[in-house]
Design goal:
Helix content is 22%, strand content 10%. With 83 residues, it is α+β, with helices and mostly antiparallel strands. It has one domain. The protein has a three-stranded antiparallel sheet with strand order 2-1-3, with no helix packed on it. The chain starts with 6 loop residues before the first strand and ends in a 6-residue tail after the last helix.
């Protein structure tokens, strides 16, 4: 089994969740390398360095816009259909 879920076919570039391409049946590989190894022995040091265990850490992460914000942005970009 692959260490990363998302796979991309080496021949036709189709995306899949398995290591066999659903389009052409050939091999697929991980779409991107893992950022860190799951067997990383320095993970605890990195968590301390980024202060991940602090309760306020999640508030500093980037967030996606709300549905209302996306609608407002789409309305501002859409041309006037009344004219």
């Amino acid at each position: 089994m692959a260490r990363q879920i998302l796979q991309q076919c080496l021949d036709c570039s189709a995306w899949s969740l398995s290591t066999t391409c659903p389009s052409c049946g050939k091999n697929a590989q991980a779409a991107a390398p893992l950022k860190w190894s799951p067997e990383d022995h320095r993970a605890d040091i990195r968590r301390k360095m980024y202060n991940v265990e602090d309760a306020s850490w999640p508030q500093g992460l980037p967030t996606l816009p709300t549905l209302e914000e996306m609608r407002e942005t789409a309305e501002m970009r859409a041309p006037d259909e009344e004219e």
